[in-house]
Design a protein that fits this description.
The protein is an alpha/beta fold and 333 residues long. The protein is 37% helix and 16% strand. The protein has helices at 40-52, 71-80, 94-104, 118-124, 130-143, 162-172, 193-205, 224-233, 246-249, 291-307, 313-325, and strands at 10-15, 55-61, 84-89, 106-112, 147-154, 176-181, 250-254, 259-261, 278-279, 281-282, 285-286.
């Protein structure tokens, strides 16, 4: 069993709601009107346990977190407790809230942008105005001292736009960029994998002094084996053998179901044989790093590099950096 003491700061992801105002074709939360909201009282109860578990980074996810009526207060509470606070958002409401979030102590904002212009991104997200709002919010965040990052889901529909998106984000002052593979419940085919490499390899080889370079692994894999798996059976690159080190450093809380997972990429819905992960509470008490959670985490630590089919490029790159270097730079997940 892996140790429960950590030399590296840990990440706590919290899904604070499942409602969303976007209609993204690849997302289970598209236009969700689910009424659950993670509460300030729940966060206050969780924070001391998170500190004791070595958490330094907290990221609110959804759904669309900026639809949460207490999101600013939640950020303020986390920052006051010494946490580095982050939000991942579709960006539509960011210009409205970014000043209050920055004043509350937000350290990083991640906006999902999948196209190089409103003409494509808003179509992919089926949400008019979302591209311009997201880009405007990112610029405002940078001006306010909040680290601006973009996450992009890449597939056959948009990979050819990535060089232009790289230029757009560089000009906007974005500091981090994740390209992760589109994941659907079916095989995803590219007509010409060689064209994908020809278009996208230069993204990763760019001079970081001149252009924003994507984080982590290539979305289609770094090695010939990873690229074969991706283009043949749609398995994105994952942590390299023998172990996934993300499971040592990440706790993902599905607030609505009260379940903990050892990675933000592990499926969070109930499995056919019961709920996944481990319970947040035992006998009504919030507990992290329980034997049940460690058993769950150790399973994916050992088996993830062979069985996971939904890894992100940043998760895979994070694990490989830990394996090679024993450490990672801040905000690398």
């Amino acid at each position: 069993m892996s140790p429960t003491t950590h030399s590296r700061p840990r990440y706590l992801f919290i899904r604070i709601l499942e409602a969303c105002n976007a209609d993204c074709f690849m997302c289970d939360f598209a236009l969700s009107r689910d009424a659950y909201r993670f509460s300030s009282a729940e966060f206050a109860e969780l924070l001391p346990k998170a500190r004791a578990a070595g958490v330094a980074y907290v990221r609110f996810t959804g759904g669309e977190p900026l639809m949460h009526p207490e999101v600013v207060e939640l950020v303020r509470a986390g920052a006051a407790a010494g946490m580095k606070m982050s939000i991942i958002t579709n960006g539509s409401l960011l210009p409205k809230h970014v000043k209050d979030l920055a004043a509350a102590g937000l350290a990083q904002v991640i906006v999902s942008l999948d196209g190089a212009s409103a003409g494509t991104h808003d179509v992919y997200r089926r949400s008019p105005g979302m591209f311009e709002a997201g880009l405007r919010g990112l610029r405002q965040a940078a001006d306010l001292g909040v680290l601006p990052r973009v996450n992009t889901v890449v597939g056959p529909h948009n990979y050819a736009e990535m060089p232009e998106l790289q230029r757009v984000l560089t000009q906007a002052g974005v500091r981090q960029w994740e390209l992760s593979a589109l994941k659907l419940d079916r095989t995803i085919r590219y007509p010409d994998p060689e064209h994908v490499r020809a278009v996208c390899d230069p993204l990763y080889r760019a001079d970081p002094a001149a252009l924003l370079v994507p984080m982590g692994k290539r979305f289609y894999g770094d090695t010939p084996e990873e690229q074969w798996q991706y283009f043949e059976d749609s398995t994105p690159p994952r942590a390299s053998l023998p172990l996934c080190h993300v499971t040592d450093d990440v706790i993902y809380l599905d607030g609505r179901r009260g379940r903990l997972h050892a990675c933000s990429c592990i499926p969070h819905r109930d499995e056919s044989d019961g709920p996944g992960g481990a319970p947040l509470r035992e006998n009504g008490v919030v507990l992290l790093d329980t034997p049940a959670f460690r058993s769950h985490a150790d399973h994916f630590r050992e088996q993830g590099p062979q069985v996971c089919s939904g890894c992100s490029t940043t998760a895979a790159g994070y694990s490989d950096d830990v394996a090679r270097l024993g450490t990672v730079t801040p905000w690398q997940y």
